[in-house]
Automatic annotation (TrEMBL), chain A:
Top enzyme class: transferase
The protein, known as: Pantothenate kinase 3
Entry similarity comment: Belongs to the type II pantothenate kinase family.
Function, as annotated: Catalyzes the phosphorylation of pantothenate to generate 4'-phosphopantothenate in the first and rate-determining step of coenzyme A (CoA) synthesis.
TrEMBL record, chain B:
Primary gene name: pank4
Coiled coil (residue ranges): none
Protein name as catalogued: 4'-phosphopantetheine phosphatase
Subcellular location: Cytoplasm
GO CC terms: cytosol; nucleus
UniProt function note: Phosphatase which shows a preference for 4'-phosphopantetheine and its oxidatively damaged forms (sulfonate or S-sulfonate), providing strong indirect evidence that the phosphatase activity pre-empts damage in the coenzyme A (CoA) pathway. Hydrolyzing excess 4'-phosphopantetheine could constitute a directed overflow mechanism to prevent its oxidation to the S-sulfonate, sulfonate, or other forms. Hydrolyzing 4'-phosphopantetheine sulfonate or S-sulfonate would forestall their conversion to inactive forms of CoA and acyl carrier protein.
Subunit annotation: Homodimer. Interacts with PKM.
Reactions catalysed, as given in the entry: (R)-4'-phosphopantetheine + H2O = (R)-pantetheine + phosphate; (R)-4'-phosphopantetheine sulfonate + H2O = (R)-pantetheine sulfonate + phosphate; (R)-4'-phospho-S-sulfopantetheine + H2O = (R)-S-sulfopantetheine + phosphate
């Protein structure tokens, strides 16, 4: 991706040249010697969360900041020894989107600040002072987790994404920012960690520490849920449009759960404990299908555009409903008249093809893909005998329509047996999991 | 959703209305038709009706023996009588012809008492007024799904080789399944515009357990939007030429290769249409259609597997217009099922899938006649068979051709059931060689039947010397059967697995179709007369022998008798030219021991032990075979204290002895032989009909009475005689009691195949594993 902020905002080209002299090892040593110091401003956010959740998060190296008591200080002091040098990144390279999480330490002391190498500072400044990078890189500011205590440091966790096809631009930026002077490896997961391994090495002199995407996903989910009580939520009264509303759902005893990750494609995992999980199945009808089809059917080019169109469309112009065939409910089999009998079924008819709008088509595509994921999920839940389903993945980003549809479908077709749960950091759990791997004590 | 697409792509109704229907071939027997049913889908109409067919049947009647008969008089007389049998007709045609067809029916429907027509399918309401106006019948709508299930149960129960698995790259592409005696439970996945998943547990118990809105309508609707191609067939055609990897995001597009830790190969689709999320690229219609086809087929396959697992079912049938004989969709669905179940579940398809709705609607209407209490048989003469699905055939041509597909089912007079003595009814396969798979054998037998055709025509004519128009009918028979053989050469899978049995049965059906019910009646009569004269002499000669000698002579007599087979060309040629060819000459033709398959020693050892309680004997030919071969052998069994049940064909086939004839012959022999007389009187010798009219034998479709007798008498020995019954069929049949399979190979090609020469002897004595060691 072309990172537009580079020259204009930072204006630090001279500084970066100087930094090249400082080797990574030296940096590492300097950081470790720095005294840890708390930033009072960050305390409030997480002051109420409990410690048990942290262990459920699955990584011993993570602690939550509670107060500046000496016990915490001692613990974090000891953790420090295993702490990797800054910057802390976790990356998840998917089929369509690259998800990047970045931990910005906010407890940097003046001394630390002084000693901070320029390359590191440049990266920090660049990432934290922008919300958009290049043509399509975005920092999801609303997801930012400030005041997070990680590995004895306090800071903010930033969530950044950019399209996978901008990988070359990203690598160029990594190279320009001399990332390899700070780290020789980068923790990465997702298929792209394998696909782009050579590119990282050749173009950015970085070795990828490749991590399994399912493991990262689960670890990320459990961690974020443990540090953010409002992370998980559900829709109350999903079958009643007016009364349907979001409610927090504490995932205290989450197992067993079905974890449905809707990215370009869909993976469905049965999770029995943090280490005991299995990919039950998957489907190729996912977010990529929604966007791909919308592009072909409506000429739109972005997910946001497609969603926006869908929000204004009417899928019943496109789909054939039970009532279109039977005039009402198909009572013999308990099928309500409003149920979709055939997705895009009306489009078999020439007249109807000519009268639908692009918005209708976008809406129908969204409904079709979403309902299909819902029904496959429901069958898996039945086969696995699991009643709790957590939906994640970037398909759900700013996509309340799909979430409500899923919540409705789970509830309606299971007669209230199944509960659909959602997480606020939808698509970033794999990247979080990768970051946690970086911070794992060796 | 239940099945059919209503009101799609109109505009074709106006064309082709001027076609003239050939009444000889389509809508046959309309004069007697009653009970109509119609299933109108999105593009095809399926019509069903019941008719009675007047048939000539050959009857044999014993003369009144109180009058002293003159030397040379035949033992019985043959008469050809009219008999009425019931038949179901199913015709499938394009909706474009519906008006023409209704007019035709109106014109040809003479005094019917029928007042209503049962209707199903999405298009039924659209044509309701037209039907009511034209036919003056009240349209009575039936639930689609109920009809579908009823129809499905009916074809599964009555048509062997109804179900098949499809393998695109195999030769043949179709592998027909043996009908399991218990067809329940099963899952039916009906892919119409949407998908319905139905669990069927019994005749009356079924449940729609689930479904999906992504079905044939989605393929069609989305396909039309994406490719601007309107017709379903054209879309499939496009898809078969496309490359989905240009549109889909594959695992390797994300991973650079396989996702090894999960065992997902690089070529798997990670995201359908994942590559089309861009505006700066054009995608070909073919590629998009292919991607769409994969997406939908995979999705349906996946759901099918999830439902099969949830309900613990492994029998899964697929139907609906999305499937309907399209090799492209059968392949993608099969692929999907194999992928998701790792081969645990097979995707099954049905030969008559398109007829299920109309069959079911018909059955609903005929409930008072209780059609399910009868067994029905596919009439090969009147049925079109499975259409060629060679991908070379342009589906557009296929769809637009005015072909009328037909299925005719004969009501069998007897209810057919399994032989209770089959070791494993579910794995029993009657036929020894599947000619669909064995192309060399197929080639040979097709030619063999073609060469024998002249002889059969000649026989047929000779059986009706006094009937003037017989020559014309015989010629029609010749053409019909030759055409069938040609069809089978092109499409060996047309009626399920091609076998020697099906070729023989097709010939019998064609002969009946043209009113040649028993071409060999006169020959059988002559040979029976002649053989009866020798009976006493043969029995006396046997009595003079020692026990050991006699046993061998009896077996040899049985084998020599079996040489007299008009079904075998090598023999019929001899019999045609040398009328004097007799029992002794036949014995000389037999192979000397050791025979090709020789279990004689084991048989003799067995005879030295306990006598069998009851022997069931499936007999073969008339004349010398039954009278001089079988009866002396049976006589010995009776003397040993074994009861005997003689099973013969219900209706004529070649020169096989029929149940009617056997009754007369037994009576005559009883008159000459006190042993037989006493056995008949004490009911130790019983005659039953097999329920069959074939020269071969399907032990899974036998007369219910036979099954009862077999069970009641605790039958512990089954004897199967003749090439048709013991070699072409049942050679590998495993029975739960002892069995004797014997035949003389009267065909040099077959002898060669089995590693012997013509007139080689097969004498197979088998003891089931569980009783082994007791003797």
């Amino acid at each position: 991706m072309e990172l537009n902020g580079h020259q204009t905002e930072d204006g630090t080209s001279g500084e970066t040249e100087n930094d090249e002299a400082i080797g990574p090892k030296q940096t590492h040593q300097q950081q470790q010697q720095r005294p840890w110091k708390e930033t009072p401003s960050s305390v409030s956010f997480l002051a109420t969360s409990n410690m048990e959740g942290a262990s459920a998060g699955g990584s011993a190296s993570i602690s939550r900041k509670t107060s500046s008591s000496s016990t915490v200080r001692q613990r974090t002091e000891s953790l420090k020894k295993n702490r990797p040098p800054f910057p802390w990144f976790g990356m998840d390279i998917g089929g369509a989107l690259v998800k990047l999480v970045y931990f910005e330490p906010t407890d940097v002391t003046a001394e630390e600040e002084q000693e901070e190498v320029e390359n590191l500072r440049s990266i920090r400044h660049y990432l934290t002072s922008h919300t958009a990078y290049g043509t399509a890189g975005i920092r999801d500011v609303y997801l930012e987790l400030p005041g997070l205590s990680l590995c004895g440091r306090t800071g903010s966790l930033h969530f950044i994404r950019f399209p996978t096809h901008d990988m070359a631009g990203f690598l160029q930026m990594v190279r320009d920012k001399h990332f390899s002077s700070l780290h020789t490896t980068l923790c990465a997961t997702g298929g792209g960690a394998f696909k782009f391994e050579q590119d990282f090495l050749m173009m950015a002199d970085l070795e990828l520490h490749k991590l399994d995407e399912l493991e990262c996903l689960i670890r990320g989910v459990l961690y974020i849920d443990s540090v953010l009580p409002s992370e998980c939520y559900y829709f109350e009264n999903p079958t009643e449009l007016e009364r349907c509303e979001e409610k927090a759902f504490p995932l205290e005893n989450p197992y067993p759960l079905l974890l449905v990750n809707i990215g370009s494609g869909v993976s469905i995992l049965a999770v029995y404990s943090k280490d005991d999980y299995r990919r039950v199945t998957g489907t190729s009808l996912g977010g990529g299908t929604f966007l791909g089809m919308c592009c072909l059917l409506t000429g739109c080019s972005t997910f946001e555009e497609a969603l926006e169109m869908a929000s204004r469309g009417e899928s019943t112009h496109v789909d054939k409903l039970v009532r279109d065939i039977y005039g009402g409910d198909y009572e013999r089999f308990g099928l309500p008249g409003w149920a979709v009998a055939s997705s895009f079924g009306n489009m078999m008819c020439k007249d109807k093809r000519e009268s639908v709008s692009k918005e209708d088509l976008a809406r129908a595509t969204l409904v079709t893909i979403t309902n299909n994921i819902g029904s496959i999920t429901r069958m898996c839940a039945l086969n696995e005998n699991i009643e709790r389903v957590v939906f994640v993945g970037n398909f759900l980003r700013v996509n309340t329509l799909s979430m409500k549809l899923l919540a409705y479908a789970m509830d309606y077709w299971s007669k209230g047996q199944l509960k659909a749960l959602f997480l606020r950091h939808e698509g970033y759990f794999g990247a979080v999991g990768a970051l946690l791997e970086l911070l794992k004590p060796s | 959703m239940a099945g059919h697409v209503g009101g799609t792509e109109g505009g074709r109704n106006s064309m082709d209305k001027s076609i003239t229907l050939p009444p000889d071939e389509i809508f046959r027997n309309l004069e007697n038709a009653k009970r109509f049913a119609i299933d109108i889908g999105g593009s095809l109409t399926k019509l069903a009706y019941y008719s009675t067919v007047q048939h000539k049947v050959a009857k044999v009647k014993s003369f009144d023996h109180s009058v002293k008969e003159a030397e040379g008089d035949p033992v019985y007389e043959i008469s050809v009588q009219e008999e009425i049998t019931a038949r179901l007709h199913f015709i499938k045609f394009e909706n474009a012809y519906i008006e023409t067809c209704l007019d035709f029916i109106k014109d040809h429907l003479v005094n019917t008492e029928t007042k209503v027509i049962k209707a199903t399918g999405g298009g039924a309401h659209k044509f309701k007024d037209l039907i009511e106006k034209k036919l003056k019948l009240k349209v009575d709508k039936e639930d689609e799904m109920t009809c579908l299930i009823k129809g499905c149960n009916f074809v599964l129960r009555n048509i062997p080789h109804e179900a098949f698995v499809y393998a695109k790259h195999a030769d043949p592409e179709f592998r027909f399944q043996n009908t399991h005696p218990d067809i329940f439970p099963y899952l039916l996945i009906n892919i119409g515009s949407g998908v319905s998943i139905v669990k069927v547990e019994s005749e009356d118990k079924f449940e729609r357990v689930g479904g999906s809105s992504i079905g044939g309508g989605t393929f069609w609707g989305l396909g039309a939007l994406l490719t601007k191609t309107k017709r379903f067939d054209e879309l499939l055609q496009l898809a078969s030429r496309g490359q989905h990897s240009n549109v889909d995001m594959l695992v390797k597009d994300i991973y650079g290769g396989a996702y090894e830790s999960l065992g997902l190969t690089g070529d798997l689709i990670a995201s359908s249409f994942g590559k089309s999320a861009t505006t700066d690229k054009q995608f070909s219609k073919e590629d998009m259609a292919k991607s769409l086809l994969h997406m939908i087929s995979n999705d349906i396959g996946q759901l099918a597997c999830l439902y099969a697992r949830l309900h613990n079912l492994s029998t899964v049938y697929f139907g609906g217009f999305f499937i309907r004989g399209h090799p492209v969709t059968m392949h993608t669905i099969t692929y999907s099922i194999n992928f998701f179940t790792k081969g645990e579940v097979q995707a099954l398809f049905l030969r008559h899938e398109g007829y299920l709705g109309t069959i079911g609607a018909f059955l609903k209407g005929a409930e008072e006649d209780n059609p399910n209490q009868y067994s029905w048989g596919e009439n090969y003469a009147g049925s079109s068979g499975l259409m060629s699905v060679s991908p070379d055939i342009n589906p557009m041509q296929r769809a637009r051709s005015g072909t009328f597909d037909m299925l005719e089912m004969d009501r069998l007079e007897r209810q057919l059931v399994n032989l209770p003595l089959l070791q494993d009814p579910s794995s029993y396969i009657p036929d020894t060689v599947d000619l669909t798979e064995d192309s060399h054998a197929r080639e040979y037998w097709l030619s063999c039947f073609e060469e024998a055709l002249d002889g059969v025509v000649k026989r047929a004519l000779a059986s009706q010397p006094d009937i003037l128009e017989a020559a014309e009918r015989a010629e029609k028979f010749r053409q019909k059967y030759r055409h069938k053989l040609q069809t089978l050469r092109q499409q060996p899978f047309a009626y399920g697995s091609l076998t020697v049995r099906s070729l023989l049965d097709t010939r019998e059906h064609c002969l009946n179709e043209f009113n040649f019910p028993d071409p060999y009646s006169k020959i059988k009569q002559r040979e029976n007369d002649m053989a009866l004269k020798y009976y006493q002499k043969v029995v006396r000669a046997l009595e003079d022998l020692s026990w050991e000698q006699r046993q061998f002579a009896l077996v040899r007599g049985l084998l020599a008798g079996n040489v007299f087979d008009w079904g075998a060309k090598a023999v019929s040629d001899v019999l045609e030219t040398d009328p004097g060819f007799g029992f002794e000459q036949a014995k000389q033709q037999l192979q000397e021991r050791p025979w090709l398959v020789d279990a004689y020693n084991q048989w003799i050892e067995r005879l030295k032990g306990e006598p069998h309680k009851c022997a069931l004997f499936f007999v073969d030919n008339s004349g010398i075979d039954i009278i001089l071969g079988v009866f002396p052998f049976v006589r010995e069994l009776l003397i040993r204290g074994t009861q005997v049940v003689l099973a013969s064909n219900s209706l004529p086939a070649l020169n096989d002895v029929t149940n009617n004839e056997l009754h007369i012959l037994t009576e005559r022999i009883a008159g000459m032989d006190p042993v037989i007389q006493a056995a008949v009187k004490d009911d130790r010798l019983t005659l039953v009909q097999s329920g069959s009219s074939s020269p071969c034998l399907d032990l899974s479709r036998l007369d219910k009475v036979l099954a009862t007798v077999v069970r009641e008498r605790r039958t512990d020995l089954v004897i199967i005689e003749g090439m048709g019954r013991a070699i072409h069929t049942n050679y590998y049949a495993a029975l739960s009691c002892e069995s004797l399979k014997l035949a003389v190979i009267k065909n040099s090609w077959l002898a060669d195949r089995l590693g012997g020469k013509i007139f080689s002897v097969v004498f197979k004595f088998e003891v089931p594993p569980k009783t082994q060691g007791l003797h």
